Amino acid sequence: MTTLPADTATTIPFFPPDLFEDDRDLLLDVVRDVATDPAQRFILGERTTRFEELLRTDLGAEDVIACGSGTTALTLVLRATGVTTGDEVIVPAFGCAPLANTVLGVGATPVFADVDPHTLVIDPDAAEALVTPRTKALMPAHMFSVMADMPRLRALATRHGLRLIEDSAVAQGAVLDGRPAGTWGDAGVFSFVQVKSFGGPGEGGVVVTGDPELARTVRMLRNHGQDGVHRFRHHLIGLNSRFDEVLAAFQIRRHPGLARRLARRAEIAAHYTESFAPLAARGVLPPPPGTNGRCYYVYTLLAERRDDLRHHLAAHGVDSHVYYPQPLPHQPAFAHAAAPDGHWPHAERAARQCLSLPVYPHLTDAQVERITEAVLAFPA
């Protein structure tokens, strides 16, 4: 086992401050182009339309609707599918706040299902056990580097007549059984906040769907209920969830490098997983290996002594991050919606043990090896 010298002066950050350094000129160019365009259209203009078409082609999807964020994308889908007061939506007990707060925001109740102990995505058996006559939708989420079991969840939704809403916010570029993330449900969503795989310098998201009526409704809801043809005619009570033309132009021009960035993330993740496999006997478990149904947004270990590992890495100049230190039903904002006799042992364990490592694409080979060696040097 290697003993590494402390080197906090050159800490490898978890959130890199130079994420868009190579795109500085590109960003300045698109700001200038949009600002000086005679059309003076700064939201939902022709650049947004071209960006939607680019993703539609990329995903082989029927429709893509750009909106203000991944969170509002979920809200738009819930609204468009008719989820409302009195309905229940089954969601994972472990994950980000929008899984619960968007459901509560439309007046429905989130019903928390436990997750798989290794992949950390929703357990289809746990989800099916929670279906009641009030259940309107199933909303799985892809987590860290693993897609949810969408074939089983698709079958579950069909069997019970539920709408399937795929929270694929972190999974752009992931493919399961030949089918892209975001295209398995009645609708899927992506997020473009900066640290995501296809992030940008601001907020943004899209809804992906093959349902023409759902797409039409989402397009109106994102723009105060207007139909995009008759301004100031409001057909629905909508939201302000409109996509920015600067971000659309930036994403269009940056898109050709996505495959290369995803490949680099996958390469780093594969190196970590192969290197860390022997650590399972010492209480440090890497995510499952392989490429099918994998995304590379965040690389996360399960460590029995998570806080000790985090301090060890910090002492050796490696920053790490704890996502979701409480399961959703334990959060003060959502506890009132949780079953009083509920128990989510795998979600609770994940909240205690998850630790994420840097995996952004411009890590050098030397930095990746330094991170790897620091984890391997963690004392048993």
TrEMBL record:
Pfam family for this entry, one: DegT_DnrJ_EryC1
One GO MF term attached to the UniProt entry: transaminase activity
InterPro entries assigned: DegT/StrS_aminotransferase, PyrdxlP-dep_Trfase, PyrdxlP-dep_Trfase_major, PyrdxlP-dep_Trfase_small
Keyword Protein biosynthesis: no
UniProt-listed Gene3D superfamilies: Aspartate Aminotransferase, domain 1, Type I PLP-dependent aspartate aminotransferase-like (Major domain)
Keyword Magnesium (UniProt): no
SUPFAM superfamilies attached to this UniProt entry: PLP-dependent transferases
Keywords: Aminotransferase, Pyridoxal phosphate, Transferase
Transmembrane regions listed in the UniProt entry: none
Residues spanning the signal sequence: none
Protein family: Belongs to the DegT/DnrJ/EryC1 family.
Name of the featured protein: DegT/DnrJ/EryC1/StrS family aminotransferase
